[in-house]
């Protein structure tokens, strides 16, 4: 139950922040098949661009915040900045942070790139409009708790990410389609595990944090039945103060990763289901996208 509560609370908070920050709106404008732009706005102070889109596949709106990277090392030293200058005209990885990146993933990555502690990357924070559809979209199968049934929309949400959102953004920004990373925590961690099982080549890297494996045991079966994986990189994390079923789920997931996976596991000391998130972002992306000088 804690995953649902976390998602609802954070989703509501993120929604309030997002709509308060909107600086301008525009009328409906068709952009790519199936995806309609409802509004766009810039946040010059945060260096981000917000796009509200309507998905034909899902039938709802999503709030997308794109956080571009600063020049590599620009906050640290001229030498690091010069080392990253060669990448300025190259296509870069995109990190797709679900649950809106809890409103912090984009700014943490921007700071890391500026300090030269990871390679340049865009962060695409995928959040929700009105209605709080977190529980529906992130679970492939329906679940019932306290007489309430939710979930079952995971396959449609995956199609939105891969078939609608990514082509749209890759046409707008210098994003490398072969270096996309999917970042999920809690229910969105289970979602990321399902994408890894069903469409492993859709993303080059996966961050699967505190996945609620207990709510969808079938994903473990899917992963164990298909041992093929051509070097997907998977970072798995959990807090050591989480429920035993959460800790067990991480070990079970690690045990069934397809052979050929490049995996890392991190247990955050003193971490409850949400408190370690600010530490998770630096740890995961130093590993997945090491700085230029370390490559």
* Strand residues, percent: 15-25%
Reported CATH architecture: 3-Layer(aba) Sandwich
Number of strands: 12
Task: List unreliable stretches of 5+ residues.
Answer: 1-30
Level-1 CATH class name: Alpha Beta
Total domain units: 1
* Oligomer state of the chains in this structure: single chain
CATH superfamily: Alpha/Beta hydrolase fold, catalytic domain
Mean pLDDT: 85
What does this structure look like?
The chain has 295 residues and is an alpha/beta fold. It has one domain (2-294): Alpha/Beta hydrolase fold, catalytic domain (Rossmann fold, 3-Layer(aba) Sandwich), CATH 3.40.50. Helix content is 36%, strand content 24%. The chain is built from nine helices and twelve strands. The protein has helices spanning 2-20, 78-85, 105-115, 134-138, 154-172, 187-198, 218-225, 244-256, 277-288, and strands at residues 29-32, 35-43, 48-55, 60-67, 94-97, 122-128, 142-145, 148-151, 181-185, 205-209, 233-239, 262-268. The longest helix has 19 residues, at 2-20.
Task: Provide a concise account of the structure shown.
This protein has 295 residues and is an alpha/beta fold. It is 36% helix and 24% strand.
Give the key terms.
295 residues, alpha/beta, Rossmann fold, ten-stranded mixed β-sheet, 9 helices, 36% helix, 24% strand, globular
């Amino acid at each position: 139950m804690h995953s649902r509560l976390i998602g609802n609370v954070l989703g509501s908070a993120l929604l309030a922040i997002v709509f308060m920050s909107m600086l301008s709106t525009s009328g409906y404008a068709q952009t790519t098949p199936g995806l309609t732009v409802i509004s766009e706005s810039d946040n010059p102070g945060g260096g981000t661009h917000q796009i509200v889109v309507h998905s034909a596949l899902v039938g709802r709106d999503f709030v997308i915040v794109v956080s571009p990277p600063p020049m590599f090392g620009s906050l640290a030293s001229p030498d690091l900045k010069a080392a990253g200058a060669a990448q300025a005209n190259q296509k870069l990885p995109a990190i797709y942070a679900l649950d809106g990146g809890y409103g912090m993933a984009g700014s943490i990555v921007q700071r890391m790139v500026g300090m030269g502690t990871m390679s340049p990357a865009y962060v695409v924070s995928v959040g929700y409009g009105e209605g709080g559809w977190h529980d529906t979209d992130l679970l492939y199968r329906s679940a019932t708790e306290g007489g309430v049934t939710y979930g079952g929309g995971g396959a449609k949400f995956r199609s939105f990410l891969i078939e609608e959102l990514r082509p749209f953004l890759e046409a707008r920004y210098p994003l490398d389609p072969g270096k996309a990373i999917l970042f999920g925590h809690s229910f969105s961690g289970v979602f990321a595990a399902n994408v890894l099982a069903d469409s492993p080549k859709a993303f080059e890297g996966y961050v699967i944090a505190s996945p609620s494996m207990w709510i969808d045991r079938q994903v473990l079966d899917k992963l164990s039945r298909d041992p093929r994986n051509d070097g997907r990189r998977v970072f798995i994390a959990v807090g050591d103060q989480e429920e035993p079923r959460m800790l067990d789920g991480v070990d079970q997931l690690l045990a069934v990763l397809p052979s050929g996976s490049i995996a890392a596991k991190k247990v955050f000391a003193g971490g409850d289901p949400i408190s370690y998130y600010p530490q998770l972002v630096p740890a995961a992306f130093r590993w997945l996208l090491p700085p230029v000088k370390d490559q």
